[in-house]
Specification:
By secondary structure, the protein is of the alpha/beta class. Helix content is 33%, strand content 19%. It has seven helices and twelve strands. It is globular and about 50 Å long.
Amino acid sequence: MLQEQIEQGVRFLRNGGVIAFPTDTVYGLGANAFNLRAVERIYKIKNRPSHLPLPLLIADISQLTLVAESVCGIGLFLAQRFWPGGLTLVLPKAASLPSYLAKDSTIAVRMSNHPVCLSLIRGLGAPIIGTSANLSGNPPALTADEAKQQIGDEVDLVIDGGRCPGGVESTIVDTTGEIALILRQGIIASHEIEKAIKEYRVSKSSAYCFRL
């Protein structure tokens, strides 16, 4: 049953649809990131201001080449430490990334640790939008029923994968500056991020880069 929902979800994504699905944190609202009309639908469904960028979800670190110009130093270190998991990284966007995905020079990216989410991305073969499946300003949805209550009539499919195990949105860290900044405290505690940053400084991992 769940596998059938996933396969149906992939078909909707390929055809420009918008779906809701479980992640390891909260229920997500997703579409093919490279389909402008689908992304515009997400803004409308969520009633989200168009100047606020939407985060992306990937299924493998190699997909960073599609969305980020380069990932070096602390960004790569944190990705390798916490992905897949509840960490969203703000990274320098790839020059080829459409302006509707990132109006400035950065892009927010995460790799979820939920089999449904990962299967959807792998089935599509491309990153997907990964914003929370709720109306802007409302609490995030932790179950399929909660997602349906907020946005169910507006999406093409809500995949019921049970209650999200995390129950809290991801932690967001900006790694584009000289100092990594925690922009939102989420499922990964700030002390864990700070501990990893200290380890990075000791290891001098800035020599490692993941580039296009």
